[in-house]
Amino acid sequence: xxxxxxxxxxxxxxxxxxxxxxxxxxxxxxxxxxxxxxxxxxxxxxxxxxxxxxxxxxxxxxxxxxxxxxxxxxxxxxxxxxxxxxxxxxxxxxxxxxxxxxxxxxxxxxxxxxxxxxxxxxxxxxxxxxxxxxxxxxxxxxxxxxxxxxxxxxxxxxxxx
Length: 161
Hints:
Membrane-bound transcription factor site-1 protease-like; Alpha-Beta Plaits; MBTP1_N; 161 residues; 32% helix; signal
């Protein structure tokens, strides 16, 4: 590597570090907390022209609300590999046949990826869920069974409170 190339590479690294430092100071740092918790991050006023025109306004605030809740009677069944929809259905059916579970169904997913092999399925079980879940977990092709959760997120940008 020649001196010009080394100098150019060093300059690029310095510029990249400065860009990361600049963006890191301008972007919100948001954590996650399960089941609740609003987070507020102040933004500098140049992001909003109205804030620049109003001398009493010194900052913008981004409020992030995040919550999760368990979806009643729905479970994610994770498999040991990628299988077709028919194979996944057969695995679940054979496992639940052993506990005589009759009130269950696979929740339909409306997306283009559902035509391809997958490593999970969402199942709704309405009766005796505990024994059904234990039986599902014992199946050789099923890795784990976890409750389905719904995530609710919202963003609200406010200026001058």
